[in-house]
Design brief:
about 350 residues, TIM Barrel, eight-stranded parallel beta barrel, 15 strands, about 20% strand
Length: about 350
């Protein structure tokens, strides 16, 4: 048996053991195409947008992106009314749709620190200011345990509230990279420290939401070895590897790991997902993107941004993406071995 096959065999055994340890707990499994709503639009607009997919059987659900500050109003005091509103709307549609909530712990293209994380993170000394400057904005100091502890508490609270709801598919994280300025890393930061905290996030949150998906957006982690370690760590807690961007023939670091370019091939072992962003839609058609996602990345959940401005008409939502999705393009739906029992 060669080394690669040995690794795959070991990963399969770990996946089986994780299921046994969880008493064979089944997980919600609604793979397919999802709409990812724009953060710049209001919730009222998002709810109205749901009407256009109300009867579409090829669209499994929606992903909404919410800033941490919106959900945690003060320390340990949460406001989930926005999530409740999305679920209520989805449940009213004639064809069932599921919800994925993506937590944003950062903001791009901003010079202001307000509105990103809860205020107490900015004022209590244990959090060292709560945020760090990035190349275009600010991000939470997730490599520091006190800050990650608070993000874990938020994920746990969401999981505990919605895990039993069949319309709640799961939680997605922000990208693993913080987009720091390379020449000016904050004191105490390292890629390994950040990876360690992401591993804590996954292992800590899973018990609070054993039936729901946890999508970790594994796009970049400093170096290939750290990314490989992070993705391998997702098997036992039955988490999903994911990430922003589906750019044909230009995989992210995380996508290179899970497709076996750097060692073990995780396709079919881990649940996999990716988001289609406006960047790639400027250069590729929806069919080209889906072909790459299906044939090479082999993702199970594909989140399509509701693009209204980037690229030509054949790459925009109403005139390109939505008509394409209505042709029922293929996507991988087989239950990953790390999950073993998928409930749909």
């Amino acid at each position: 048996m060669n080394i690669k096959k040995s690794i795959l065999f070991a990963l399969a055994i770990v996946g089986w053991m994780s299921v046994a340890a969880a008493n064979a707990q089944g997980m919600k499994w609604h793979p397919g195409h999802y709409v990812m709503f724009a953060m710049g639009d209001s919730q009222t607009q998002h709810l109205a947008n749901m009407n256009e997919i109300a009867n579409d059987t090829t669209i499994q659900g929606v992903q909404i992106r919410i800033l941490w500050n919106t959900l945690e109003k003060s320390k340990g005091v949460y406001d989930f009314s926005s999530i409740d509103a999305y679920l209520k709307k989805l449940k009213s549609l004639p064809v069932p749709k599921r919800l994925v909530v993506r937590i944003h712990d950062r903001k791009f293209n901003t010079t202001s620190t307000s509105g990103i994380v809860p205020t107490y993170l900015l004022t209590e000394s244990i959090y060292n200011g709560g945020l760090t400057k990035t190349s275009t904005g600010y991000a939470a100091r997730l490599w520091e345990q006190p800050v990650m502890d608070r993000l874990i508490a938020l994920y746990k609270a969401i999981g505990a509230r919605y895990d039993s709801d069949p319309y709640f598919e799961g939680i997605a994280s922000s990208e693993t990279t913080l987009s720091l300025i390379n020449s000016n890393w904050p004191a105490g930061y390292s890629h390994k420290a950040l990876m360690t905290q992401y591993k804590r996030l996954v292992s800590s949150v899973r018990p609070a939401m054993p039936r729901s998906n946890l999508f970790l957006y594994t796009n970049w982690m400093g170096n290939d070895n750290l990314m490989a370690e992070l993705i391998q760590s997702l098997i036992e807690p039955r988490a999903a590897a994911g990430g922003a961007n589906v750019t044909p023939n230009k995989p992210t670091q995380g996508q290179r790991v899970w497709t076996g370019q750097l060692g073990a091939d995780y396709r079919g072992i881990l649940a996999l997902s990716s988001s289609v962003e406006t960047g790639e839609l400027g250069n590729f058609t929806p069919k080209q993107i889906n072909d790459y996602a299906y044939n090479t990345l082999r993702v199970n959940h594909l989140f399509w941004v509701r693009n209204t401005y980037s690229g030509s008409a054949d790459k925009r939502w109403s005139t390109g993406i939505l008509p394409f999705l209505r042709t029922n393009p293929p996507i991988r739906t087989t239950c990953p071995s790390s999950i073993a029992i998928c409930l749909n």
